[in-house]
Amino acid sequence: MNHGASKGLIAGVALGSCFAVITFVVFFVLYIRDRENLKIEKFLEDYRALKPTRFSYSDIRRITHQFSEKLGEGGYGIVYKGKLSKEINVAVKVLNNSKGNGEEFVNEVGTIGRIHHVNVVRLIGFCAEGFRRALVYEFLPNDSLEKFIFQAERNSLGWEKLHHIALGIAKGIEYLHQGCDQRILHFDIKPHNILLDHNLNPKVCDFGLAKLCSKEQSAVTMTAARGTMGYIAPEVLSRTFGKVSYKSDVYSFGMLLLEMVGGRKNVDERLNTSQVYFPQWIYKNLNVGEDIWARIEEAEGGNIAKKLSIVGLWCIQWHPSDRPSMKRVVQMLEGDEDNLTMPPNPFPDTNAANSIAGINGRRYQTELPLIIELE
Asked: Looking at its record, which EC class is this enzyme (predicted)?
């Protein structure tokens, strides 16, 4: 064989090998996609009896008028306003294609689709065509609680309405923990995930990070921390503080309550780290008996602010066993402020508190090693 033929043979073999590798990769990607779509379809087949409407993607385009009115955007998708009819408005969340494993979709449909409560947002239907997935919810005209407690609209609420909203959120979470066949742990309770209807009644939404467990189960298995920094319970980040359970949602609710009182975020990456951690500041001033509500002119408003603060501080106790259940939280919010006792100091380790406070408030779901637990 001459030199030229030898070089040609080698080039042909290399080219053939390259083509084989590319073919393998293409078929592997298609296999993964088909397997995922089959998983989603099997889930939806099992779920059909629960009756949320299944829309086609062309239905979604029609309902949203070709995605013409954007309501908001998050890490998992874009929300558009739509119409089912002249009388019925809806909010349509179109999920990002890049998320791949469909967990957000299955979590939302598998949890929220089967429950109905006045303080939990209602899922009307869904779309699943290959990697085009969308969720259709009831439309709530007043947007999220975040807009009302961190911006100028806060002044329009008043303390009575803030108390009403706090109680409604607590009842919604208590229903998730105790009112369903299986306990639903939300894992992302925060103002952005509380929507308000035309009467400012609150509804818990966004179940993309939720987990289901039996009511008898004292802890859940997790190999990844999930939630938004500033609201994540200590035990979700490190098992040295205890086991992950429904008490993790209680902690997040407590942080939300303190934000409602203060009108500012517990974690704000714009602040320098030398500033006092806001929940710690509330505890210090309440504990020494100072009138930190002097700025509140109405006496009843001061009582409500103090009640929300005390309940919030009970909820953010460092160890899960020291936090009340959501049923007890509802009772505390419905009861008289004078009957509430001050909780223990929830900040035994200042450095630990500040380290959590110093992390920014982005949604968080990352792998953590060596935190697998037995159920």
From this structure: hydrolase
* Closest to 222 in 3D by CA, of 249, 251, 243, 206: 243
Query: Domain span at residue 363?
Result: 145-367
Query: Looking at the structure, do residues 182 and 207 belong to the same domain, yes or no?
Result: yes
Token couple for 283: 């505890």
Residues 304 and 344 in one domain: yes
pLDDT tens digits, one per residue of 316-355: 999 999 999 999 999 999 998 778 898 988 876 545 444 4
How does the average pLDDT of the chain come out, rounded? Answer: 79
pLDDT tens for each residue of 263-284: 877 765 555 444 557 788 788 7
The sign one gets for the Cα dihedral 8, 11, 13, 16 is negative
CATH number at residue 266: 1.10.510.10
Instruction: Tell me: do 228 and 318 sit in the same domain.
Output: yes
3-state secondary structure of 181: coil
Measure the CA dihedral 262/350/230/108, to 10°: -120
- What CATH number has the domain bearing residue 62? 3.30.200.20
Q: What is residue 215's DSSP assignment?
A: T
Are both 218 and 346 inside the same structural domain?
yes
Q: Is 284 annotated as a binding residue?
A: no
Q: 35 in a domain, yes or no?
A: no
Instruction: Please tell me the distance from the alpha carbon of residue 150 to that of residue 154, in angstroms, as a whole number.
Output: 7
- H/E segment holding residue 236: helix 234-237
User: Catalytic amino acids?
Assistant: 188
List the one residue out of 156, 108, 364, 371 whose CA is nearest residue 252.
364
| Pair 174, 120 in one domain | no
Helix axes 326-334, 247-262, angle to 10 degrees: 30
Residue 281 lies in a domain: yes
pLDDT digits (tens, 9 = 90+) for 108-135: 787 787 788 999 999 999 998 888 899 9
CA 366 to chain centre: 15
Cα atoms in the Cβ-side hemisphere of radius 13 Å centred on 344: 11
What is the rounded CA–CA span in Å between residue 166 and residue 200? 11
Buried b (16+ CB within 10 A) or exposed e, 27-66: eeeeeeeeeeeeebeeebeebeeeebebbeeebbbebbee
- Does residue 13 sit within a domain? no
Three-class SS of residue 227? strand
Q: Answer with the one of 106, 138, 170 that is the final residue of a domain.
A: 138
